Amino acid sequence: xxxxxxxxxxxxxxxxxxWRVQQLCEHTAARQHFGMDLDGAxxxxxxxxxxxxxxxxxxxxxxxxxLSSAGPRWLDTLPxxxxxxxxxxxxxxxxxxxxxxxxxxxxxxxxESKHDCFAAAVRTPRELADACxxxxxxxxxxxxxxxxxxxxxxxxxxxxxxxxxxPYFVDVDRQVWPxxxxxxxxxxxxxxxxxxxxxxxxxxPAVVLDIGWCAAPATGPPGWKIVEANAAWSxxxxxxxxMAAVCATVAASQRDVPDRWLWRPSPLLFTxxxxxxxx
Length: 279
Known about the structure:
Blueprint: E1 11-14, H1 18-25, E2 30-33, E3 48-49, H2 52-61, H3 80-83, E4 87-91, H4 92-98, E5 106-109, E6 121-123, H5 125-133, E7 140-144, E8 151-158, E9 161-168, H6 177-180, H7 183-198, E10 206-214, E11 223-230, H8 243-252, H9 267-272, H10 274-277
């Protein structure tokens, strides 16, 4: 049985993209915030969909604003049976010092941040060392065995239930996505993830999990695997099949957040949030 979506008084959408607010207004009360200041972040009743840099500034100035996430090392704790690859998260300083001793290329990304200075990519040991040397020494860097996902699905999870989903295709323009969608794959992926959740996967009360079909995992047989976890309050909703459930998950990701799932901005995000903090 689907989880009922609670009524949301209003969602503040921190973005310059008018179309995002227009989309949300079809499903919930929403207002646009251009992110030039921290207006409204001190309101204990406010709910936000926002980028990480703005959230870093807002939670620094107003610590009573509690946002949730799985944490930068959540993937490290999962069995390879559900990831299909080895994953480890280390500090940029440690990686910069030791990467050249690694024998092969690895997929490297910032686990909970997005920044042009360190795009998610497969890097040689030398490329990895050079890129990490440009990051704050204590910035988390996630390293994993490179694998390919043939079909990827974003899933919104609330109270242990998959409540919405959307495929996404990083290799083509967004307007082409509906033509690439395979609803049979969507149902299969959701069913697989729900079975993993039912088996006891430890996740925040509200989170977004990306999964993908992997024909050639580094470890184990082909099948659906967990790609990554994302904060619900900043995740793109793509072609979500239930926007009311998406909005409810965004709201739940910042209500009564347990300490163990409290989002903490990374050192790199602190360097990008100084402008709003000055206002």
